[in-house]
Amino acid sequence: MRTGTLILLRHGQSTANAEGRFTGWVDVPLTPRGEHEALEAARLLQREGIAPDVVHTSVMSRSISTADIILAELDRLWLPVQRTWRLNERQYGALTGRRKTEVRAEAGPDQYHCWRRSLHGRPAPLPPQELAQLRADARYVALRPHGIPAVESLADMIARVTPYWADVLAPQLRRSLTVLVAAHGNSLRALSVVLDRRTAAEVEQLNIPTGAPLRYDFDHNLCPAVRGGVYLDPHAAHAKADSVAAEGIA
């Protein structure tokens, strides 16, 4: 039985990306460059003859806008879209909103790398007042009163995306659907760990670029045909991934 195709896409550049800040669950818009990246992603899908049957986003504007731009360009705004907090960006706790260069200079390169790229690194939690504001957000009503995390490691993210993979995405792929997930760097890193069974060392080297569609095809057991998937534009994606890896250093 033929299985479906999964397209993973990190949203286009956001205003926080452009400023080099840890964004977390702060809701920020796309920049004009980010909108263009979403448009180019749609054109790559067109070039490859890929037409999504269903779309998944987080509940954050940068993810939603990216999906909307793509669907408009593909003339598929009528498609069903499922939104979930499980695909949100990582909750960066006390690092939220801070410039990465400042955090690296203050904490040192090793601690910075641990917080940003390791499997279990977890910074200090979000201050209580900011967490209370987040818990008052209407989009998280189902998580009240204590379901919103004050901080997360990548391992915590893997725990929250795994049920969505098992209960929602995998069944759709078994129905031979083409599934587009427009989400965030760390939620897609977490999904990649689930799909590719990456080691902790591999996780540290994994950087997801903005606006670069990553295609997964599967065997009948939903094991990836190519471990790590295939970028539709590998050269551009790898160059962007190198830029992601260097964030906070310059």
Structure, explained:
- The chain is α/β, with parallel strands linked by helices and 250 residues long.
- It has one domain (5-245): Phosphoglycerate mutase-like (Rossmann fold).
- 44% of the residues lie in helices and 10% in strands.
- The chain has 10 helices and 6 strands; from the N terminus they run E-H-H-E-H-E-H-H-H-H-E-H-H-E-E-H.
- It has helices at residues 15-19, 32-47, 61-73, 100-107, 109-117, 128-135, 154-174, 185-196, 200-204, 234-245, and strands at 5-10, 54-57, 81-83, 178-183, 214-217, 230-231.
- Strands 3-2-4-1-5-6 form a 6-stranded mixed β-sheet.
- Helix 3 links the parallel strand 2 and strand 3.
- The radius of gyration is 17 Å and the shape is globular.
Into how many domains do the coordinates divide? 1
Average pLDDT reading? 96
Shape summary: globular
- CATH fold call: Rossmann fold
Q: Assign the CATH architecture.
A: 3-Layer(aba) Sandwich
How many helix segments? 10
End-to-end C-alpha gap: 49 Å
CATH class: Alpha Beta
Strand order in the largest sheet: 3-2-4-1-5-6
| CA-based gyration radius | 17 Å
